[in-house]
Prior knowledge:
The protein is mainly beta. The protein has one domain. The protein has 1 helix and 10 strands. The protein has a 4-stranded antiparallel sheet with strand order 4-7-1-10. A two-stranded antiparallel sheet has the order 2-3. It is globular.
Amino acid sequence: MYNTYYLKFASQEEWDTKAAEAGYRYEDPETGAVYYSVSPGAIDVVGTIYNDDAVFDEEGEMTSAPTAKDGWHVNVRLRKVTEWNDGTNQYDDLTLSNTGLNTYIVEPQTPSRVFA
Length: 116
């Protein structure tokens, strides 16, 4: 079973730092290109998300651009790792606990992007 986690960071730089610490960020030494990867799973760097508040005139031309939502957004899909918790009598989700990314999880009511 796989779970999707919606993560929100203060900035792209914070994501890059945390992704490197988690072992999800790779840089090609020859080209300098940066890649994000996890196995088994997938990473979707969404980046900036915009509100649905753009203003258009009668001809359909944008007169006011949409405003950006706070944060830098990343979706991560991972194989779920659980452990039984005798204290709560339920399984705890430990999937992101060893990466330090679990503190960045948000739960959007209507995600802007999802894995197909």
